[in-house]
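check these tokens.
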Amino acid sequence: MEALFASGRIVDAILALVAAEALLLARLARRRGLAVPPLLANLASGAALMLALRAALVGSGWEVVAGWMLAGLAAHLTDLGLRFRAAATAHRRTPPQAGTTPGTAAFSASTLENL
């Protein structure tokens, strides 16, 4: 195990699993009609952090580690932007609820006083 960590090969194995996960989840998302880009941005963020870890394990310079961390930040911000955009779009598509609420004209001060 020590050799796996010292050489960074442990991260390579994990990245191979992440790649397999990305393929499987992208296929499932397409079948169910879900958005694939946020999923891939999320996985890319994690993969970039794993590459930063690998760079640190093998003794790369701080510039390489920082570069991978910056790539992870960019992917994370992309993921957040896609999620917020999807949530805003879904909110705009939600039809108003039927019925009356205390904020509608069906309720007035006189109606509430009679309760």
About this structure: Residues 62-93 form the longest helix (32 residues). The chain has one domain: 2-94. The chain is about 75% helix and 0% strand. Residues 3 and 93 are 54 Å apart (CA to CA).
